[in-house]
Amino acid sequence: MTDPQTRILDLVVLLAEKEGAGGRLSPAERVVADIGWIDAMVAPNGFDGWLAYTSCEQMTRTLHALGLTGDDRLLALVREALDVAGIDPAAMSDEERDDRLGDLPDDAHELLSPLDDRYYGVVGDTMARCLAFAEANGIPVPSGEE
């Protein structure tokens, strides 16, 4: 059996295909999809990418999802990234978020970089928690060996 991160990312692809085909995700599937999206964005683009390519609605859902899975470490990092960028997803529109990110000073980008590094120290635990959440909620998770 492969590692939790690979298994969750494989599941996230399946969930995206389900949505793309017009299916609706269950609340538990939405939690997994939102947490998986963090890795899909931060791994190649850092928190800059997650902030730019994630709607305010999804950011708010992600904060809730991390709380549901008990992932206090990543939740703190995400909140710190939002604070550095000056983004309050519960109070801003996507347009306001885009404007804020467009005007983000270089020193804020420099403050996000260490958060990217810290992310790699917690992602393994995040994916293990997400996998346990998925399994506890009856979501079929690929073995990663297909």
Features of the shown structure:
DMP19_C, 146 residues, 6 helices, DUF4375 domain-containing protein, globular, 76% helix, 0% strand, mainly alpha
How would you characterize the overall build of this protein?
- The structure is a single chain.
- This protein is an all-alpha fold and 146 residues long.
- The chain has one domain (4-136).
- 76% of the residues lie in helices and 0% in strands.
- It is built from six helices and no strands.
- The chain has helices at 4-20, 27-53, 56-68, 72-85, 94-102, 106-136.
- Helix 1 (4-20) crosses helix 6 (106-136).
- The longest helix has 31 residues, at 106-136.
- It comes from Bailinhaonella thermotolerans.
**Cα shape:** globular
Helix-strand category: mainly alpha
Write down the overall mean pLDDT: 94
Radius of gyration: 15 Å
Low-confidence stretches: none
Largest sheet: none
Query: How large is the share of residues in beta strands?
Result: under 5%
Tell me the series of helices and strands, N- to C-terminal: HHHHHH
Distance between the termini: 10 Å
- The total of beta strands comes to 0
Number of helices: 6
* Portion in helices: over 70%
Number of individual domains: 1
Question: Summarize this, please?
Answer:
The chain is mainly α. It has helices at 4-20, 27-53, 56-68, 72-85, 94-102, 106-136. It comes from Bailinhaonella thermotolerans.
Produce the secondary structure layout:
Blueprint: H1 4-20, H2 27-53, H3 56-68, H4 72-85, H5 94-102, H6 106-136
